[in-house]
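Take a record:
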Amino acid sequence: MSLPAVTCRLQQSVERLTLGRQAVDEIGSQNGCWRVSEAGPPLALETLVTFGRATAQTTAPIAPLAEALADALERQGDIDAAKEVLSIAAVRTADSGLAMRRSEAALARGDAARALHALVPAWEAGSQEPRLEARLALCALALGLYDVARQLCESSKGGVEHAGIRLLLAFTLGEGVHFETTKSWSELMFCVRTQLRQLACCGRTDVVWATQQRVCDLGVPGFGRVVSGLRATPPPARAPSRPPMGGRAAFREAWQWPGADAVYGFAWSAARDVLSDERVLLLGPQPAPLQPLFAHGQVTSIASHNAEAVDMLATPEALPVAPTRFAHAVAILWLRDAYDPRLAVDELAVTLAHDGYLNLACVGPSAPGDHDLRLSLRATVRACAAAGLEVVGTDSRAADGTHGDHIHLVRARRRLV
């Protein structure tokens, strides 16, 4: 990111700050990062100016200042501003402490993908911090990147966190457990419990379930009791399933929007790729007629209007679902109500797990009816690419399902590494 862009983001954060002089003096003096003059304004602008100058100097120790300022902001309850300060500092330095702090905050929100991305720059810069390596492995495990997690923790020289992740990997994949007898069982038990709580926060309650099923095999007294109180769910079956046939006529009668035939064919094709019990996010102005196609999956439906048989209502720019939870997102005419289509596609991409698929049907320029937003196929593909998605297929259809430009169909995949 360029310096003007960093400065602009810093100024936006400054406008939101409500930090008192006393709190700044207390925390700043402890860290030796600043001193607020007696005549200084209540907002402690000279502290923020110091931080702003540090962003412009490649040799300035920006990480300690950023962490101290973020501490002050968090104590005042301005979490968003604290997160912004840490993000700005991360642009200028690959400090491992800063990366760990940002990843911890992301894991607390259940966003393992963002936590992983926060750690990667420090790792690529050559950080030798063992806790950073273990945190990377934990994020990889949460995202289903088992080979990456194994490679990061394959050395027996790692600490108890490495041993805990090796144990969880063996439980999850049904492998034999080879534990180093030199490790402390009590320390390992509570380390594993902490890691399981973080994984459960990221939606991996199946890892918790696998651990609870096999932990008794270790024969360690008290280990089962330590992990027994955590939320757990069995892993999905994930067997191939075929959506029901012969539902086109009923769908055409129930569908109140344009392109019934094109939409049905596209949704049926997407449903065919959904394995049993896989999580599916179904979005659109009228999700109910599409739900029978995805009955073999675990469906969460969201509508942008008052609609029947939906789980929640939301705007395209702000989805009320946790990150990286869904193997498939099927958004049918979802962007027609978006004010910012790029932000709306970003929101869809964040919901997908690693190797998750987005099936997106958008209103084209010549589609009949009144729509707030019409997109060309090129604009839709560019929005997907800007969200970090790999477009694997595109098509355009008329309302009756033949070739035309009423409805644009895009299929894209999210890969985190």
Remarks:
- The chain has 17 helices and seven strands.
- The chain has three domains: 3-93, 130-227, 248-414.
- Strands lie at 279-284, 298-303, 312-313, 326-332, 352-363, 389-397, 407-414.
- Residues 3-93 form one domain.
